[in-house]
Amino acid sequence: DPMENNCSKYMLTAREVEILKLLREGLPYKLIASQLNISNRTVTTHVANMFTKVNVTNKMELVRKISRNKN
């Protein structure tokens, strides 16, 4: 699975991967937060950290880059 390989490649944490999977399903931050029992701000922080690690600037780019076979 390219996503798993890329999550390892970019050294995403288990929590970031959880959030990423929910982002891929199209869930808004608010729903992700309630589903994972964390605050909206915490979701935002995790997503911002992923943007930095993966070197992207938005959710669409993040999901696209992590889901791709080659980067």
Report the order of strands and helices.
HHHHH
Instruction: Give the total of beta strands.
Output: 0
Share in helix: over 70%
Radius of gyration, whole Å:
11 Å
Arithmetic mean of pLDDT: 94
- Overall geometric form: globular
Main structural class: mainly alpha
How far is the N terminus from the C terminus?
A: 14 Å
Strand percentage, roughly? under 5%
Biggest sheet layout: none
* Low confidence ranges: none
- The total of helices stands at 5
Report on this model:
The protein is mostly helical and 71 residues long. Helix content is 72%, strand content 0%. The protein contains 5 helices and no strands. It has helices spanning 2-9, 14-24, 29-36, 40-54, 59-67. Helix 3 crosses helix 4 (40-54) and helix 4 crosses helix 5 (59-67).
Write the layout of secondary structure elements.
Elements: H1 2-9, H2 14-24, H3 29-36, H4 40-54, H5 59-67
